[in-house]
From TrEMBL:
<protein>
    <recommendedName>
        <fullName>glutathione transferase</fullName>
        <ecNumber>2.5.1.18</ecNumber>
    </recommendedName>
</protein>
<dbReference type="GO" id="GO:0004364">
    <property type="term" value="F:glutathione transferase activity"/>
</dbReference>
<dbReference type="Pfam" id="PF14497">
    <property type="entry name" value="GST_C_3"/>
</dbReference>
<dbReference type="InterPro" id="IPR050213">
    <property type="entry name" value="GST_superfamily"/>
</dbReference>
<comment type="similarity">
    <text>Belongs to the GST superfamily. Pi family.</text>
</comment>
<comment type="similarity">
    <text>Belongs to the GST superfamily. Mu family.</text>
</comment>
<dbReference type="InterPro" id="IPR004046">
    <property type="entry name" value="GST_C"/>
</dbReference>
<dbReference type="GO" id="GO:0006749">
    <property type="term" value="P:glutathione metabolic process"/>
</dbReference>
<dbReference type="Pfam" id="PF02798">
    <property type="entry name" value="GST_N"/>
</dbReference>
<feature type="domain" description="GST N-terminal">
    <location>
        <begin position="3"/>
        <end position="86"/>
    </location>
</feature>
<dbReference type="InterPro" id="IPR004045">
    <property type="entry name" value="Glutathione_S-Trfase_N"/>
</dbReference>
<keyword id="KW-0808">Transferase</keyword>
<dbReference type="InterPro" id="IPR010987">
    <property type="entry name" value="Glutathione-S-Trfase_C-like"/>
</dbReference>
<dbReference type="InterPro" id="IPR040079">
    <property type="entry name" value="Glutathione_S-Trfase"/>
</dbReference>
<feature type="domain" description="GST C-terminal">
    <location>
        <begin position="91"/>
        <end position="212"/>
    </location>
</feature>
<comment type="subunit">
    <text>Homodimer.</text>
</comment>
<comment type="function">
    <text>Conjugation of reduced glutathione to a wide number of exogenous and endogenous hydrophobic electrophiles.</text>
</comment>
Length: 221
């Protein structure tokens, strides 16, 4: 293990933003290695040690000689690295609930990506119908689930809350009026944003406010 872990990802929010929140909360010293151009990534991925790994991908964590790939695996690795395995769920019930919420969240993220990658010449005409038919029902389901819950699995914070917060931030920025009606999501969003480590990070110059997605490839972000 190294003195400082390295989180490697594009210079956008994307899959890495919940991990940045996570690292801040865990208080692990880290380097936020941002790739601004594809060429920068291609140089690294073609060189040791990244080119020695079959599963190489973005985002990744480099911790001394240890390399970890695939975003869901990074949450598990970092929880153990910070001696906070409780963030993975403290009992079987929490772990099953976490997995269930993660599945719904993945559906929400996929639907948002499909919305924001509608062909440019069709986007304005289709975006509202697509949001109302393919996105909002998933958000409403999550919001209803979160009502009367402190965190996603109940009383205890877990890593899925970090991913949930990013989904909420996308919805809050894209459809602010709609987001205010999603009471469960809105309450969770406010509670998470007020965690001391998160509150400090959100107001710091380390925070990436935008873009959420790669400019030019997505209609919004």
């Amino acid at each position: 293990m190294g003195d400082k872990v390295v989180l490697g990802y594009w210079a956008i929010r994307g899959l890495a933003q919940p991990l940045r929140f996570y690292l801040e909360y865990l208080e692990l010293p880290y380097e936020d290695k941002r790739y601004y151009k594809p060429e920068e990534w291609f140089i690294d991925v073609s060189s040791a040690p990244l080119n020695q790994h079959v599963l190489v991908n973005l985002p990744y964590i480099k911790d001394g000689d240890e390399l970890v790939f695939e975003s869901q695996a990074l949450y598990v690795y970092l929880a153990y690295r910070a001696n906070k395995p409780e963030l993975l769920g403290q009992n079987p019930k929490e772990q099953v609930t976490l997995a269930s919420v993660r599945g719904v969240l993945q559906d929400l993220f996929k639907s948002l990506i499909s919305l924001f990658t509608i062909p440019e010449d069709q986007y304005e005409a289709r975006k509202d119908d697509f949001f109302n038919s393919e996105v909002i029902w998933i958000a409403e389901k999550l919001s209803k689930f979160l009502e009367n819950r402190k965190w996603a699995v109940g009383d205890n914070l877990t890593y899925i809350d970090f991913q949930l917060f990013e989904a909420e931030e996308i919805l809050r920025n894209y459809k602010p009026d709609t987001f205010t009606t999603l009471v469960g999501l809105k309450t969770h969003n406010e509670s998470f944003a007020n965690l001391p480590a998160i509150k400090h990070y959100l107001s710091s110059d380390k925070m990436i406010a935008r873009p959420f997605y790669p400019p030019g490839m997505y209609r919004w972000g």
